């Protein structure tokens, strides 16, 4: 075997020393120095950080601690804003003080505060202000803001479909369950995008696995009718049971099935109407055909 290390002991020692020096100095010279990031860049990166992530980032180095000080202050303001909004923590509910706290937090760069400020403006009927704050937070990468912005502009007159689908997709890829559900609805209904039952079912499943109950309900329907997914009554029952266990109680979720069991034929008609409203035209036709062709099995008694 040919050796690439010099044979003389003196030369070998000098060779090894020089190699060790090179190896020890090379990582430090090639690794990036994150402490040198400009404050404004770091602020944009951390704008959507949750309090635990923000605290962890502040411990990286002194430069980061100093740069993230406004965002830490925003977290305190966000906490007080939520207390004033919901009347928690020993304070009386006060929407004006809540909004003031959220706006101060938003001014310090927190997208969480921007979203909450947008929610209050929306509840006050000031939709333009709400959309402006959602948009600002969405551009900073906040998935909740992206989802809220998309839903808001879908409800506009006229709806802005292309932009809404773009924001829903970004939030969905980031793992936001409500955005995944809303994207699936658009794909299922062909709203602002070409109708695609398979892709809709994919996003229903993603949202259902993320804990979004309405998506569990729709995933069950997809399996039950074989729309976008292979037909599987066992998987349909699995997702319906999971949704029921989560305890939805409105017309859009599995609570309608509980009402059907409790209220007899009147409630059953209510359940039928609620289900039909949720189906696409093709699914309705298929469901009606299955109902028309249904026959009771002979009794074994």
Give a structural overview:
InterPro entries: F-box-like_dom_sf, F-box_dom, F-box_motif, Sel1-like, TPR-like_helical_dom_sf. It comes from Rehmannia glutinosa (Chinese foxglove). There is one protein chain. By secondary structure, the protein is an all-alpha fold. The protein has a domain at 38-116. The chain is built from 16 helices and no strands. α3 runs antiparallel to α5 and α7 runs antiparallel to α8. The longest helix is centred in the last third of the chain and has 24 residues, at 255-278. The protein starts with 8 loop residues before the first helix and ends in a 9-residue tail after the last helix.
Summarize the structure.
It holds the Pfam family Sel1. The protein is mainly α and 301 residues long. The protein has helices spanning 9-30, 39-45, 51-58, 62-67, 69-86, 95-107, 111-123, 127-139, 143-154, 161-173, 177-189, 197-209, 213-225, 233-246, 255-278, 281-292.
Secondary structure: elements and pairs:
Blueprint: H1 9-30, H2 39-45, H3 51-58, H4 62-67, H5 69-86, H6 95-107, H7 111-123, H8 127-139, H9 143-154, H10 161-173, H11 177-189, H12 197-209, H13 213-225, H14 233-246, H15 255-278, H16 281-292
Distance between the termini: 87 Å
The low-confidence parts are 1-9, 21-29, 249-268, 296-301
Provide the succession of SSEs: HHHHHHHHHHHHHHHH
Q: Quote the average pLDDT.
A: 80
How much of the sequence is in beta strands?
under 5%
User: How much helicity do the residues have?
Assistant: over 70%
What class, by secondary structure content?
Answer: mainly alpha
CA radius of gyration is: 28 Å
Major sheet attributes: none
Helix count from the secondary structure assignment: 16
Query: How many beta-strand elements?
Result: 0
Query: Judging from the principal axes of the Cα atoms, what is the shape?
Result: elongated
């Amino acid at each position: 075997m040919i050796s690439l290390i010099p044979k003389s002991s003196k030369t070998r020692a000098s060779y090894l020393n020089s190699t060790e020096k090179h190896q020890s100095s090379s990582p430090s010279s090639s690794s990036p120095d994150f402490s040198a990031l400009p404050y404004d860049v770091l602020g944009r990166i951390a704008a959507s950080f949750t309090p635990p992530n923000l605290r962890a980032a502040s411990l990286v180095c002194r430069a980061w601690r100093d740069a993230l000080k406004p965002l830490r202050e925003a977290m305190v303001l966000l906490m007080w804003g939520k207390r004033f909004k919901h009347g928690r923590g020993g304070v009386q509910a006060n929407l004006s003080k809540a909004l003031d706290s959220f706006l101060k937090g938003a001014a310090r760069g927190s997208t969480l505060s921007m979203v909450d400020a947008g929610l209050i403006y929306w509840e006050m009927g000031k939709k333009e202000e709400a959309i402006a704050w959602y948009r600002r937070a969405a551009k900073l990468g906040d998935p909740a803001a992206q989802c809220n912005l998309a839903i808001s502009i879908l409800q506009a007159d006229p709806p802005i479909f292309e932009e809404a689908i773009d924001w829903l997709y970004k939030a969905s890829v980031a793992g936001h369950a409500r955005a995944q559900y809303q994207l699936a609805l658009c794909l299922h209904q062909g709203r602002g995008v070409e109708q695609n039952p398979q892709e809709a079912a994919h996003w229903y499943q993603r949202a259902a696995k993320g804990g979004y109950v309405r998506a569990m309900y729709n995933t069950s329907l997809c399996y039950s009718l074989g729309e976008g997914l292979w037909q599987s009554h066992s998987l349909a029952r699995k997702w319906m049971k999971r949704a029921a266990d989560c305890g939805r109680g409105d017309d859009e979720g599995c609570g309608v099935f509980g009402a059907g069991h409790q209220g007899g034929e009147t409630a059953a008609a209510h359940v039928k109407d609620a289900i039909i409203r949720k189906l696409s035209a093709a699914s309705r036709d298929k469901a009606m055909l299955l109902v028309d062709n249904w026959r009771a099995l002979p009794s074994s008694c």
